[in-house]
Amino acid sequence: MKEITFLKQNVERWENYEASLTGKEQMPPAEVTDMFVELTDDLSYARSNFPGSKTTSYLNRLASLIHQKVYKNKKEGHGRIFRFWAFELPSLFGQCHRLLLISFIIGLIGGFLGFVSELYDENFVRTILGNDYVDATIERIRKGNALGIYGEMPSYFMYFYITLNNIRVSFMVFAFGMLFSYGTGFFLLYNCIMLGAFFGMFYKYNVLGKALKVVWIHGTLEISAIIIAACAGFVLGNSFMFPGTYSRLESFKRGAKDGVKIIVGLIPVFMCAGFLESYITRYTEMPLWLSLVIIIGSLVFLIWYFIILPITLKNNVYAGTKN
Length: 323
What we know:
This protein has 323 residues and is an all-alpha fold. The chain has two domains: 3-71; 96-322, no CATH class. 81% of the residues lie in helices and 0% in strands. The chain has helices at residues 3-22, 29-49, 54-71, 80-93, 97-120, 124-129, 131-142, 155-175, 182-204, 208-241, 248-280, 288-322. Helix 10 (208-241) runs parallel beside helix 12. The longest helix is centred in the last third of the chain and has 35 residues, at 288-322. The protein is elongated. The two termini are 19 Å apart.
């Protein structure tokens, strides 16, 4: 069936559904159930045959409306927090993988630019990180303790300072999305250039291997979480740049809500990264195998939770609606 035929056969029924859903009158539960089943079937058909079309977007909006109708008065149980991290947040990421990929690519480009710039311009890292920090790091390298900075601050103080700072940065990169998404892209690019220049400095002094082994113990979670926060910023910025079938204001509200969910969901990740940086990274001479266990374990968790689990949940929902 062609899309125009599908639309003509059902548009009147959909408009009646929309009028009922947006009206103030209470709908009988049986009617809501029937409407939910029919809209789910229509949406499943549209997704299969007309992916990315305006018809599919319209049906997706109606499905969201009826979902709100069903659940808006439902009392939250004690498992709400568990459901948020187990289902709601990963399901949200199932819709954001394209923006997450964009964030990742920007991060890679920034890191590469910073690394190469430091190799060809000895003053570049000073411009980015400041003379005091660079001079102190060079002094530690000469003393044979290149990453000694991680052991110079009490662990408990370092934990709270670093964790709160990383959460602050994540909110900033998210909020910069209000600058039409370009603000988030620039903020992420600049921070990754700093990271690349940082590693470029260690490379020039022949201690890059040790720096990678130590820094990525906490950096795997920390840097990845910043990239994910940038994804939230793109969700926010794109929501009012590309509203789709929603009004620009309604789309912005939805984008802001989804973005905040992502940032809140990252808090445990930042807490874990802060713990690793404050209590584990300071042991700069730990065996390589132990560092790799922590780094690879963190990477496996990130890939599973933010990529594999969302895809699995999305496929399960699609299979359920299709049946």
